[in-house]
Amino acid sequence: MDLKNKISEAAEQVLLTNGLAKTTTKEIARAAGCSEGSLYNHFRNKEDIFLHVLRGQLKHLMGTLSSLPNLVGKEPVLKNLEQVSLAALGDFSNSMSLICSIFSEPDILLRHREGFTTRNEGPHRANEAVEAYLLKEKQYGRIPEEMDPRAAADLLLGSCFQHAFQLNFLGKVETKEEQTDFVSRVLKTLFPVEST
Amino acid sequence: MDLKNKISEAAEQVLLTNGLAKTTTKEIARAAGCSEGSLYNHFRNKEDIFLHVLRGQLKHLMGTLSSLPNLVGKEPVLKNLEQVSLAALGDFSNSMSLICSIFSEPDILLRHREGFTTRNEGPHRANEAVEAYLLKEKQYGRIPEEMDPRAAADLLLGSCFQHAFQLNFLGKVETKEEQTDFVSRVLKTLFPVEST
Amino acid sequence: MDLKNKISEAAEQVLLTNGLAKTTTKEIARAAGCSEGSLYNHFRNKEDIFLHVLRGQLKHLMGTLSSLPNLVGKEPVLKNLEQVSLAALGDFSNSMSLICSIFSEPDILLRHREGFTTRNEGPHRANEAVEAYLLKEKQYGRIPEEMDPRAAADLLLGSCFQHAFQLNFLGKVETKEEQTDFVSRVLKTLFPVEST
Amino acid sequence: MDLKNKISEAAEQVLLTNGLAKTTTKEIARAAGCSEGSLYNHFRNKEDIFLHVLRGQLKHLMGTLSSLPNLVGKEPVLKNLEQVSLAALGDFSNSMSLICSIFSEPDILLRHREGFTTRNEGPHRANEAVEAYLLKEKQYGRIPEEMDPRAAADLLLGSCFQHAFQLNFLGKVETKEEQTDFVSRVLKTLFPVEST
DNA sequence: CATGAATGAGACTTCATTCAT
DNA sequence: TATGAATGAAGTCTCATTCAT
């Protein structure tokens, strides 16, 4: 692995351990096994490292979402949504503290925003992807005609998002079973049995 | 107003404007119209000021939630939930950047956690309050027997929470109408007409 | 007891406990049971308090020394010198950290010096007093003709002084017996039996 | 000379000039010709600098003492003791204010104590060294059988110590002749001519 | 004479970034 | 490209002293 990636991974680990405020270039260099000066041979500055790490978050979820269009009309809707929800819950849980940290630095948030706007990315894409999926399933008649796809997507991902937030906030970690249980209860409530 | 409150309000304003990372004691003092030294006559340190401001967040939502038990069986369920949702959306929007900032300082988060654990508070209380409300309404027969109160609460508040998060993240501000529209779509999806 | 004395005693206690560097007006006021402002109704400033406390040191030794002239030719010389030595050892031990602290503030030392020069006092007076005593005893023929009174005084008090210093430095406290033993060995060496 | 030594020497000079209480990092940096930040590339903190300087004190005396065992039985006892006494007087005079300053910061004294305890050093070692020397000379029959080596060492070094203390306290500086005179009188009194 | 909040100067320390090697 | 000592700006916090009550 090249040094740039090593730095990036080291930074991610330090950020998750110490928090953005207590993440110093000295610590990143130590974790990456290189000198502080080396950081600047691969990144413009500390913010650049942070943004690089930030852009690498939610990878699992994004992958799942991009494979969603191929599942339309195939696997059971609820099964597909469960996959998405679990991916969301997992990725949100892992990335929450990193993503939230950006609110402590509005300047960086601004630049980050410009970045993902340019690349047509952003956290709201997830909701749009689920909405698009539901819309297509409706055309297939696999979900009720009267369902509002965007609202359903917001409810589903929103509950996962807040759940992940609260776990992080409370310092709790859930087992696989607890996660599945949460997702299943939420899905059952959003899509009562007779409806699909 | 005494200086302690003036400092607290000044700090809140500076925190919202500059973000936690760029909020300095010098700036807080300037905004409060006092000397830096004076901050320390009323707060132990900078963290103490931050936690004080933090504890003052979500006041509107908490007020709405505490009046919820009195509404059981009276106003239409959907109207009650709309009130709660709007309060949540508003308070989440206003407090999001402050609350999220704490993830950049795990040490502070830890202390904050201890604080609200002791006082039996915390952000998850909101979901519990809505859950309790729904449970009682179920006993009144005003919502379907098969509904899972906790899951419904998580879906509802979760969608508001994530929506507020994304607005802050994207730097957008919603009008009253947009907020009402969001809440109404979400509620309609969670409680399809025939169900209540 | 009036407040001025209460403050003075409180300051002495705080100085001995915390050291000069960590002795704050707030702490003195707390120990004296009054407000910080009150300190300034009785002393010009913090230095004034310190000098006041400093001047109160070595009281026991000074008392013993001033009674020394009356003992010339009466009690055995060694017994008189033992009294003086024990008083010196005791007072030096108790006052050492306070007196030494002044070296950390040359400005204060300067003012202190002016003070005791004016009042014709100072730590070197002790040696002079013992010297004067020995001189008189020599005239009485109670100590050898060839003895140098000043040198003898310097040896005796010097050893007590350094001993007290080292105890403080090493954080040790001696029992009455250990003190008496030290003094007796030193006196025996300085005044071998056949000499007196 | 590397920067660490430059800082150390600068600090010693500032400490001797301004006293511990008025020795600031800014002043040390100025005297060392570097930035304040640089201090922290070579020392953990200000206390670390102080302790480093402190440990460098009494070097001359310690050197003289370590060469003492080689002189047993060779040079005249009084000449050897004069060397030691002069070294002690000189080093004590130069280091007194620095060494005494530590009493103003009990916390630092504590740490310093731990340090030299670990390294089996400390100011009391000087007295032990002289005691050991005298003991050996006694075996050579060069000092009276009835002499108490420890007491003699304490008297000799104690008088030098207190003399140096008082000179510093009174703000006086002695010439070489005055020092030699003091030492010679003290030695003559402690070792009357016929005794050696 | 007593109070204690307010002050403001200044101390120590951290840290991202640079640059000569 | 890699290094790491040097930097200097900036931040948090302390504390003796004042003054209005």
TrEMBL record, chains A, B, C, D:
PROSITE patterns reported in the protein's UniProt record: HTH_TETR_2 (PS50977)
HTH tetR-type domain span: 1-61
Keywords: DNA-binding, Transcription, Transcription regulation
MF terms in GO: DNA-binding transcription factor activity; transcription cis-regulatory region binding
Domain of life: Bacteria
InterPro entries: HTH-type_TetR-like_transc_reg, HTH_TetR
Cytoplasm as UniProt keyword: no
DNA-binding residues (ranges): 24-43
Name under which the protein is recorded: HTH tetR-type domain-containing protein
Organism, as annotated: Paenibacillus solanacearum
